[in-house]
Fold:
Amino acid sequence: MEQTSEPIGIYVFSGTGNTLRCARALETTLTEMGVSVNLHEISDGSETATERDLVLCYPVYGFNMPRILKTFCRNLNGGGNVWFLKTSGEPLHLNDNSSAELIRILKKNGYRIKGEFHYIMPYNMVFRHTDEQASLMWETAKRRIPDAAKRIANGEKTPIREPIPAKIVSALCRIEHWFYPRNGRLFCVDAKKCVGCQKCVKHCPTKNITFENGRFRFGKSCIGCVRCSFNCPTGAIKIGLLDFMRVNGPYDFTRDPTSAKPGRYCRKSYERYFSEK
Ligand SMILES: Cc1cc2nc3c(=O)[nH]c(=O)nc-3n(C[C@H](O)[C@H](O)[C@H](O)COP(=O)(O)O)c2cc1C
Ligand code: SF4
Ligand code: SF4
Structure:
């Protein structure tokens, strides 16, 4: 096993907790294997890494990564090994190219790209999975994470798939990075539903929400993470032009996964993912 005494840094950006959940499971597994790891949450991307070898964790947004990860990677210069851990709501290969921009930035900064681990977790946008489906996704991720941990501990290189359709779709969807800050200006709060808990203001990673003189203001730095609307206890936040795809409220991951009924959407791809080792 290629283990160094230097800790591995697990750096996580997670809008609504799915990626953090998987990253924490990886942290626990590596620690149990005797590998020294530090888990850090990325807030706005301005942080720097103190470890040489890194696992960068993020949710897929529009077949790409959150803009914050790009900012984070531009600041890195440690020149060690990098793995990616990503989560997405659908198991389509169109998500395969989402790390491409990060790979380019990191290679330029002297890093060696070692591999990528992709886990399917419930949608926080588009439509709501059932709690049973969410539990099946979580159980599947937990089953697969030890393999990732072994590969990381061994310093093993695993190829990253980059199918041409995924390259085209992710390149086209990069427009979403341009779209999110503009759409963020259209967010609004339904005053009749709001209970004034200020959770949205406190937890926005880019400090994009302010509350002054009894009014909410949404600024220009939204990254589309939906943390505000997903966690609003009363579903009071409308997310602009994407409101028809809004998902509100956390999932219960403790249901019986064997009672998860398959949906019609991408059914074969989900079934393939759940049955893969
Ligand atoms: C703005 C936005 C765009 C998304 N785009 C995709 C996508 O292209 N493909 C996909 O499979 N899931 C997509 N999702 C779903 C998330 O990737 C998925 O729910 C992820 O597990 C959320 O992780 P988090 O809880 O760590 O934020 C998107 C979610 C958001 C908020
Ligand atoms: S999280 Fe929802 S209920 Fe709480 S202050 Fe924000 S909009 Fe109002
Ligand atoms: S306004 Fe909401 S969606 Fe936009 S960055 Fe802040 S928490 Fe995320």
